[in-house]
Amino acid sequence: MLDVTGHGMVAALQSVALTRVLASTWTAAGRPSSAQLTKWLNAEFPVDPDVWQCFTFLCGVVDLSAGWLRYANAGHPGPVHVPLCGEPAALEAAGLPIGWFDDAEYDEFSVRVHPGDRLYLHSDGLTEVMKRPRTTSASAG
Question: How many Å apart are CA 73 and CA 59, to the nearest integer?
Fold first, then answer.
C-alpha cells in the first residue's frame, strides 16, 4: 500500500507508475522480503528537492499456512489487527517515508495471524478526514 504526497493528477500518475514498478520488481526479483523491497524503493526514489514529492509505503506478506504476517513500513500508518477472539491492536509501524534519507534502514515486523482474524490497512487520508471540522447544513423551517 502506498500513498503519494499531494492531490490531483500528479499524485495519481505517480501512484500508478509506482504500482507498475512494484509489480514488475516483485516478480523479477524473486519476491524479496518486505524490508528488502522497501530499502530498494528508498534507494531508487530519492526525494526531488524541486518538488518535495515523496510517498509512504507499507508492504507485507500473509503466510496463511504458517500463520504469520511479515511487513515493513516506510512512514505509513500501521495495520490494525483484529483477532477473531481478542482486542484490536494497531501494529508497530516504524520507518521513514521513501526517499527522505539515502541510508534509511527498514525493519521487518511480524505478527501471528489465525483463521478468522482481520487486518485493516489505511492511509493517513483516514486520519486526516477525522481531523476536519464537521459541517452541518441548516434546514429551512
Answer: 6
